[in-house]
Amino acid sequence: MSPPRQIASPDDSAGRPEWRYIVHDYLQVNGGAERLVTTLARDLPRTKLVVSGIYSDFLQTADIEGVDVRVLARHVRWLPRIPRALAAFASGQARFLDAEGIVYSGVFAPLAVQSQKSGKRIYYCHTPPRFAFDRIEHYLVRAPFVLHRALRRAIAVYRRAYLDAVRAMDVVITNSEHVRTRLREQTGVRAEVVHPPIDTARFRWRGSGGYYLSLGRLEPNKRVDVVVKAFLQMPDKRLVVASGGSQRRDLERLAAGAPNISFTGWIDDARLAELIGNAVACIYVPRNEDFGMSAVEAMAAGKPVIGVDEGGMRETIVHGETGILAAADPRPSDIIRAVERLGDASTSAMRDACERRARDFSRERFVSAMAALLS
């Protein structure tokens, strides 16, 4: 993997032609948002990607060759991710003096719009910040009680700044109808929908290796524990868990002694495409997912997906044609029934429908739509 071509302040372009910028919170893992912003930076001419930090889990798995990345807040690299992002974008240091247009991505980067001096202001919203709107209490319980009052005040300050930033944009885009509705309810802002890009050429059908592939990061909201519990009851079915995250040790302990369940940890794009291409079917059951690029990547390889009947997954998986939408709050028994429906014969019959569906979310369509908005 090649390192970033340049690491510098975005202000070092004085005297050059005007640039476009993609301003994103940080490159933490090789997830959907990270793939989206690197796609834009690579495929749009005269475009630079600006972030507050680049972290090891991303560098170990992502390919950013051809992406001009600029890192802010290098003087406070010792700070944790979120304070470092706030230092980069809320402090006014991100001044884009030569911007033809800027696409802001994430929940902290949009705060830099107040320092934008020229060019179009576009916000690509993957999700409104849940810790500042509908899930405040959920996040507060993670902190010591004595800090709750101070945290409430800090969240209120951030929420006002976020609302001001979103309302200062010329165009607001969301990744799904589901997120567009939630953004309107929480901020009053109207948005357009441009679905994220799927590199359909990278994912292809390779055969069947006789295993089912879990694609969710190992975090509580991805509900991979439900999938593992289901396969503990199906010793004749193989499960490969292709991701990492904070729950990895807990899930490995849960699956201890089960020879049909294996964990890969974080893997690079090539290995992921290989695993998807050889799976019987893929499983992705996150809680209230905003869009779910992983499901579309699986379909691009002709693999049906076991998903859930909620959130953005309703916009990608066609129940019974390109996969199975299990109950919105799935139990292991729901996963077991879906696996039983998706054997080698039935998944092969769904291949063409999956590949056609994935083309609706192609990288080319996404880049064309975003280029038109920036022009």
Secondary structure elements and their pairing?
Layout: E1 19-24, H1 32-43, E2 47-51, H2 56-61, E3 69-71, H3 81-89, E4 99-105, E5 120-125, H4 136-140, H5 148-167, E6 171-174, H6 177-187, E7 192-193, E8 211-214, H7 224-232, E9 238-241, H8 248-254, E10 261-263, H9 269-278, E11 281-283, H10 293-300, E12 305-308, E13 323-326, H11 332-341, H12 344-349, H13 351-359, H14 363-374
Parallel strand pairs: 1-2, 1-4, 2-3, 4-5, 5-6, 6-7, 8-9, 8-11, 9-10, 11-12, 12-13
How does this model look, in words?
This protein is an alpha/beta fold. It has 2 domains: 10-195 and 363-374, Rossmann fold (3-Layer(aba) Sandwich); 211-359, Glycogen Phosphorylase B (Rossmann fold, 3-Layer(aba) Sandwich). The chain is 36% helix and 15% strand. The protein has 14 helices and 13 strands. The strands form 2 sheets. The chain has a 7-stranded parallel sheet. Strands 10-9-8-11-12-13 form a 6-stranded parallel sheet, sandwiched between helices. Strand 6, helix 6 (177-187) and strand 7 (192-193) form a beta-alpha-beta unit. Helix 7 (224-232) crosses helix 11. It is globular and about 60 Å long.
